[in-house]
Amino acid sequence: MSLRNPLAKARGLGSAKDGTAHWWAQRVSAIALVPLVLYVLYLLVSLAGADYATVRLTIAQPVNALLLILFIGTAFWHARLGLQVVIEDYIHVGWLEITLMIAVKFVYVVLGLAAVIAIGRIAFSA
Q1: C-alpha separations of 65 from 25, 112, 116 in Å
Q2: CA-CA distance, 17 to 124, in Å (whole number)?
Q3: Is 71 exposed, middle or buried (0-12, 13-18, 19+ CB in 10 A)?
Q4: pLDDT tens digits along 23-39
């Protein structure tokens, strides 16, 4: 006796064995974002009203640059995971779903790299 839906058998569909890992990745990234967001808010508030040179020198400190890069990477990864779920749940046209998934991954990689390069340029040129 099988517990699979007859329609799933007919289509050859079954578990992709990836849902739990995706769920955990979203939760872990959300938990990691809590202290990172608090840190970034603290940094922004402490730099409010500071001149350009002070902001550059603050971001150029290794700990600040590293935490900003971790924030960018974690935030973009978390956002990509969230958009993937939205696309999978609400887009039911095969080619459009694949196209959107590729576009989302591409956009987040490009934006993430641009942010890391910007932080690197500030950190290494100050």
Answers
A1: 24, 14, 9
A2: 43
A3: buried
A4: 999 999 999 999 999 99
